[in-house]
Amino acid sequence: MPASSPGGRTSRAAASPRAAGRTVSATGGRTVAVPGAAKAPAKKAAQVAAKAPASRTTAQPPARTAPAARATVNKATPKAPVPKKAPAAKAPAAKKAPAAKARVAKKAPAGTIPSSLARGQAAGVGPTGRVTPTFPEPKRLRKHGPARILAVCNQKGGVGKTTSTINLGAALAEYGRKVLLVDFDPQGALSVGLGINPLALEQTVHNLLMEPGVRAEDILLTTDVPGLDLLPANIDLSAAEVQLVNEVAREQTLARALATVSDDYDVILVDCQPSLGLLTINALTAAHGVIIPSECEFFALRGVALLIQTIEKIRERLNPGLELEGILATMYDSRTLHGREVLARVVEAFGDKVFHTVINRTVRFPETTVAGEPITTYASSSGGAHAYRELAKELLAR
Ligand SMILES: Nc1ncnc2c1ncn2[C@@H]1O[C@H](COP(=O)(O)OP(=O)(O)OP(=O)(O)O)[C@@H](O)[C@H]1O
Ligand SMILES: [Mg+2]
């Protein structure tokens, strides 16, 4: 039954000719990863993750000495132009404070980027410390499918999984790819982020997983972005984690459910929930590749090492074709030493698996969630939109 959403989205009936009960081989068309190639990074990652960034080791202050600790971190910032700030900070008069602040604010961006990095940037070296290639403009496709299924996964919460799924999906659609986004998180944030109220929906991914008669086409919604479709979810999905336990081949449930639509799309992005439970295992079993968004923060780095181990287990036991597509640094702030250090560690551990494209921290992303649309349409010429377009080009060039 067609359902309509506030954004004018409509549920799409099965339009294309699909043979009932047709299945797509779980590894069909997938590139099988070279065994061991991904193991090396995992081991290295474990070692690297065990080391705390230098700034952490110096900053272990009791609460009251926090300002002093901050000063230590600032000193460690290479070539930070501090001399002029010192007198300003000492200034006793209250009136002088705003002036001092203004000066600090102006100098911050230049002062916190090491001159070596600035030279590197001039030579084409990106924030990951590697020369950034120019990714070609993706060629338009004449026909679509079969889809490459990518799980956007990290068991740590709030690292940018949903934001990356929406915006990478929208950017890929701009380049003419047919993209299906799968909301695989009972929070339903992906659906909300596309302007849909998932609580008002009669059928969602939960029905798709649990009811044999429901097909992906039955719950599919189109979005305002041409070429971008959605399988929505809501809190009902949380029950699936328990209900699936009694199913035969429970880990393959999502793979089976996507089989009827995967030939219609070029890319399917599955937005995972922040856990390594059965739903996430399903996403990793259905996927050809995993994109790991990771905040540029120390604890996030440790989580990535753990996730890589899980991916290896899934590859060994359930999905031999599963590849680590790439690690995406999100919420990056080049002005903080900590962010730069963590990014350097991620590149040290995972090398070329780290996307050259880095997503900067900007308030435009939370704004897009409120607006219920991707940044590529909400703020089309913003840095954030540009970054996800670059990521789309990089992904297609891999
Ligand atoms: N690059 C960014 N800069 C600033 N804020 C961001 C950025 N990316 C995401 N955010 C914001 O951070 C919050 C968490 O992002 P998001 O929901 O994408 O993370 P998540 O990993 O999907 O979270 P969860 O684990 O809860 O599903 C959101 O409010 C989002 O708007
Ligand atoms: Mg999310």
In short:
This protein is α/β, with parallel strands linked by helices. It has 18 helices and 7 strands.
Number of strands: 7
**Percent helix among the residues?**
40-55%
Find the CATH topology of one domain.
Answer: Rossmann fold
Strand order of the largest sheet: 3-4-2-5-1-6-7
| Percentage of residues in DSSP E strands | 5-15%
- CATH H-level name of one domain... which superfamily? P-loop containing nucleotide triphosphate hydrolases
What is the radius of gyration computed over CA atoms, rounded to a whole number of angstroms? 23 Å
CATH architecture of one domain: 3-Layer(aba) Sandwich
Query: What general form does the structure show?
Result: globular
- The CATH class name of one domain reads Alpha Beta
The main pleated sheet reads as: 7 strands, mixed
Topology as a string of helices (H) and strands (E): HHHHHHEHEHHHEEHHEHEHEHHHH
Bound molecules: adenosine-5'-triphosphate, magnesium ion
Question: How would you describe what is shown here?
Answer:
The chain is an alpha/beta fold and 398 residues long. It has a domain at 145-397: P-loop containing nucleotide triphosphate hydrolases (Rossmann fold), CATH 3.40.50. The chain has 18 helices and seven strands. It has helices at residues 39-50, 54-58, 66-76, 85-90, 96-112, 115-122, 161-174, 189-193, 205-210, 216-219, 237-243, 253-258, 278-286, 298-317, 337-350, 364-371, 375-378, 383-397; strands at residues 148-152, 179-184, 221-222, 228-231, 267-272, 289-295, 323-330. It has a seven-stranded mixed β-sheet with strand order 3-4-2-5-1-6-7, sandwiched between helices. β3 (221-222) and β4 form a beta hairpin. α1 packs antiparallel against α14 (298-317), α1 (39-50) packs antiparallel against α15 and α7 (161-174) packs across α18. The model is unreliable at 1-42 and 52-120 (pLDDT under 50). Bound molecules: adenosine-5'-triphosphate and magnesium ion (MG). Adenosine-5'-triphosphate binds at residues 157-163, 185, 187, 189, 274, 330-331, 359, 361-362, 365-366, 369.
